[in-house]
Amino acid sequence: MDNGNNIFDVLTIRVTGERLDSILAGDGAYLKARKEIEGVSVQMKEHGFSEKEMQMIDGLVCAYISQGICCMRAAYQQGFKDCVCLLNEIGLIK
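Predicted structure:
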């Protein structure tokens, strides 16, 4: 992927990186998931994993987060492209 060298990438980074935080702050499903993550995090800390085990778990979680970010960015970009195509098809843009 072109990392911010065109206007489409700049818009995607701006919207997914900045505006999304304010949108998610009011999303009940997101807030519920965040609370669940916090609970599991507390459980893991209480479990007594070794430093090496915690690093492995952290690495796995980071990999999942990276994958999710890639999926989110691709979905947003595809939705934006679909919207442009729809506007073009109904004659609002050329």
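Summary: The mean pLDDT is 87.
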